[in-house]
Structures are given as C-alpha cells and as structure tokens.
Specification:
With 436 residues, the chain is mainly alpha-helical. It has 22 helices and nine strands. The chain folds into four domains: 1-75 and 119-178, 2-Layer Sandwich (Potassium Channel Kv1.1, Chain A); 191-279, no CATH class; 287-392, no CATH class; 401-431, no CATH class. The termini are far apart. Residues 400-413 have a biased composition (Polar residues).
Amino acid sequence: MPDNLLVPVNYIIMAEAEPDLSTFENKTGLAEDMKFLASMPELCDVTFLVGDTREPVCAVKAVLAARSRVFHKMLYQAPSPQRRKDPPPRENKLRLFLKRSSEPLLNLQNASQQPTSQQHQTLIIEEFEPDVFRQLIEYIHTGCVTLQPRTLLGVMNAADYYGLDELRRACAGFVQCCINVDTVCALLASAERYIQYKCTKSLVQKVLEFVDEHGNEVLNLGSFTLLPQHVVRLILAREELQADEFTKFQAALMWGKKYCDNNPNTSIKEVVGNFMEYIQFHKIPTNVLMREIYPLGLLPQNLFVNALAYQVHIYHCDTLTYVGKKYCDNNPHINIKELIGNFSEYIEFHKIPTNILMNEIYPLGLLPDAIFVNALAFQADPTSVDPGKLSPNRVRRQAQGRSMSVQSSDPYGSNTTLSSSQSSELASSDGKHSSN
C-alpha cells in the first residue's frame, strides 16, 4: 500500500449528448492551470500568513468562497454595523440639513470603501501548519491533493474545519491503510498539534492500538525519540502494550539521550527517571538487569533491591524497626551504622537466606543498598555478578595483608596477648604446601 494517496474530486469525461454533438472536459488541464494560478502571487488577491512562522500562502478569494462557506464568510461577509439610537426630536432638522449637505462627500467615501472585497487582503491563520494549509488551498483550487502521513491529521482537521466534507472523508479512508511501523510515529507527532479537534481523537486511538500490537518494533524506531514526552509516557504506561520491559527501558533511555542532546543543561538521570514508574524491572532477567542497567548508575539502588527480591520470590516489609545495640546505648556519640559497617566486610551476605536478608537485615537500613543488590543478584543468577563485588573490601584487604593484636585479662589477674598476621599465615601455609 503506498504511503501517499492522490485524491481526485472530478474526473475526465467524454460524453455524447446527441449524435451530432460531443462534450469534451479537460479537467486535468484545468487543475494544472489552477495550481499554477495559486502559485503566482500577482494573480491572487488574498495572502494567508500561516503558523508560528507566518509563512505566506496565496489564493484567489472567489475560488475559496465558491468552494467553502467558511471562507466565503471570512472573506466577503463583513460584520453587521451596530444600530444607532434615534437623535432627540429637536435636533432632527439640523441633522437632516447636515446629512443632505454632506451627501456627495459621504457617497465619495463609501465608494472608496466598498471595493475592499476586491482589494488584496492579508489574513493570519494560526490553527494549522503551513504545509497543511498549503495542501488545503491546493485542493480547493485544483480539486486534488496528495495525502501523506506527515500532514494527514492536519489536512483532515482542516477539511473538517473549513467544511470540505469530501476531503475529510478521503483522509479518513486513507488513515485505515497508512498506519504502519514507518508512519506511526509521524502520525502521533502530528496529533500533538491537533489534539483539540474531534477527528484527531478517533485517529489517535487507532494509532495507539497499532502501537500496542507492534510494541517492540515501534519502541526501537529512531523516530520514537521525536515524540513529545507526554506521548512517550502515554505509550509506556499502556497495559495493552506488547513489549518486553528491557525494550521499554531502552526506548526511555534512547529518548532521554536525544532530549539531553537537544537540551544540554538537563540531566539524563532526571529525564530517564520520569519513565521508570512505567517499567516493571522485576520482569527483566537478572543477568540483563545487573550487566546492562545497573552499571549505568541512572536508577536508585532500592529499585534493584526490590526487583531482585521479587525474582527470588521474597517480599519484605519496610516498616520494621530496630533497637540499638548495647554498645551504642553506652556510647551515644557512636553511630551504629558506621559501627556495623566496620564488620560487614567479613560477612558473605549472598549466603544468607533471602527471607532473612530481606525481612531481618535490609529494613534496618544499616548497610549500603549495593550489598543487597549484589547478594540478591547472586542468589537469582550467580553468573550475573562479579565475585569480587560480593565482598570488595575483604578482597582488597586480603591482597594488602594486615596484622591484629588483642590483649585481654581474666578475673584472676592474668594477661593474655594474641597476635595474628594474615600475610604471615598465608605465607606459612604456602610454605607448608610447597614442602609437602
């Protein structure tokens, strides 16, 4: 099915009314001549300044008025003057004298004002885009126009606005066959300008239904980044959208990058964050979640914690409270979060059952979310996490080597000193293995 459609209104007809008579109609030639007429400003008597850029579009008033009642009223029907009140009776004679004496002058003035309909007029059209209005004027002058997806919505609404029913029906018929993957974004983008018109609402619904059925294809289109933000939100929020969650995230990320390129002062983290509520991250495979999305640093840590907890079929409660440890009770100036953090490197959280991890430890808010993200990701899919990230501080300190000395005393007054050197222990163990 072609993307463009030529809509003729009249046809070339050869007919014989009587045996010795023949009727010849060259409507194609007439259409070409009328198109040429509209392209010559010196032959036109009205200029429309269209759109935000006030682009000039010329036309012939008589043709417009003959084809559209709306244009006839706009161009030829002046507003009716207000009726004046009758003067007081005592002034009637004086006014009658003045009227008769000035009648020639008034007639001269009226004669100069009457031909305004024949003078060149300039009107401003703000409702439609220049390309749309130019196609409308071409149709009115020639009886044919080439419909295309980019301007289809505008032409259809303009035809309805100016009372051109045949053109409106032609546009409505063309809509049925022009909605495809290549045109869907152009149709949605044009709908933004004409959303207040009734013709737009019915067409947008058909376009959105197409998007629902071809979600993955539409979201991967480069033209998807050209859609307004609220249209992108509308698409991602639709429950009927048949697209996987990672594709939805990629589409949001692609749109955000394009937006930030056009608006350098914006943060992509904030822009992408506007769409995250419409993406179900717990449905994205763990490996993809941890290797493709998590390293970007665009999303809050708790989002990954909740998504990964769901994947291991555990739900946690955020309302749990905790009681401070005795150490912190005796030392009020000590921050329990910092204190516990000193020992977290020795705990392999990925080996703690998920139910305990999420119900007993996570609600305390004592540990970085990254610990839970890596632990849960490992439990959901061990290949999705670098082993070094499960306890990074511990690995780093083991590589550096360290020693520890502890001195204690018992009730009997004896003192005991224990010393430990991790590097020496490792070296001695290596020596034993080598000797063996």
